[in-house]
Amino acid sequence: MYAFLNKLSIKVCFIVMSLKGGGLTLTTKFMSSGEDYRSASVILVGVPMDFTSSFKPGSRFAPQKIRHVSVGLEEYSVYLDKSLKDVRFYDSGDLDIPFGNVDESLCIISKAAKEILDDSKTPFFIGGEHLISVPVIKSVYDKYGDDLIVIQFDAHADLRSDYLGCPNSHASAVRRLTDFMQGKRIFQFGIRSGTKEEFDYARENTNLFKFDVFQPLKSVLADLKGYPVYVTLDIDVVDPAFANGTGTPEPGGISSNEMLQTVGLLKELNIVGFDIVEVSPPYDISDRTALLAAKIIREVLMIL
């Protein structure tokens, strides 16, 4: 039912799946997206979901906003001396998920990720809230097993066992990863918010680096080489002075420049999946948060 990446006719598939009420909704594509799924090595998928947002909802609007503002950027990266025109990627639109139905939405996300991986392509998901990362990472884990390493860039630890009694929450996204993978395979950078219990848990079960991002990642880079690595980037790792369009802004974060420098370090690693989450356009009339997200996506696509 959710074979939305049918290689026979992507455009027809968009229309048919939309009519069926499952699959994808066609939107403006990210700049320089290819027209053919089959020839692409990286597949972009938007997930307009913010059902468990604990403070300010609105990240459901991020995938389309990020695509919209991407045309304001150059296709050429001065950081990498590369052009997006030379990257084989395909923007497949947004998943059509049932509003308010968390479990079914997670199931749809999982099937989408699995199909991309089964086709030997790299999944690149645009949220949406951070909970959307869990089914994607689970699908990647099912392919790579215990060798998989997860890198998290975030202001929040996201290690609560539950939030207000709900285990499937964006506040519990990283804790849910430990349901199926070893916590010591998780590296958390930029963390500056959480409960005492979360930090106690991290001390025993994950690799958590508080406040900074670039130098901590650089210090462990050699240990991560040679392994399949999935990266999940919550935009609130960046200080709200640079990225105020997010649902749970947390003062004291890194600059947008440090974030872009950190992304450059990822070219040293074997990145097998990526997502960027928690951009919330309604709180940023300047669009600078969406623009930062689009620039990060551009850089990562070139690295992949």
Labels describing this entry:
alpha/beta; 9-stranded mixed β-sheet; 33% helix
Question: What do you see in this structure?
Answer:
The protein has one domain (10-303): 3-Layer(aba) Sandwich (Arginase, Chain A), CATH 3.40.800.10. Strands 1-5-2-6-11-10-7-8-9 form a nine-stranded mixed β-sheet, sandwiched between helices. It has a two-stranded antiparallel sheet with strand order 3-4. 33% of the residues lie in helices and 19% in strands. The chain is an alpha/beta fold. The chain has nine helices and eleven strands. It is globular and about 45 Å long. Helix 7 (214-224) packs parallel to helix 8. Residues 1-23 have low confidence and may be disordered.
Number of helices: 9
The overall pLDDT, averaged over residues, is 91
Tell me which CATH architecture applies here: 3-Layer(aba) Sandwich
CATH superfamily: Ureohydrolase domain
Q: Helices and strands, in N-to-C order? A: HEEHEEEHEHEHEHEHEHEH
- Strands in their spatial order, largest beta sheet: 1-5-2-6-11-10-7-8-9
Reconstruct the topology from this structure.
Elements: H1 10-20, E1 23-25, E2 42-47, H2 62-70, E3 76-77, E4 82-83, E5 89-96, H3 102-118, E6 122-127, H4 133-144, E7 149-153, H5 173-177, E8 186-191, H6 196-205, E9 207-210, H7 214-224, E10 228-234, H8 256-265, E11 270-277, H9 288-303
Parallel strand pairs: 2-5, 2-6, 6-11, 7-8, 7-10, 8-9, 10-11
Antiparallel strand pairs: 1-5, 3-4
Helix pairs in contact: 2-9, 3-4, 7-8, 8-9
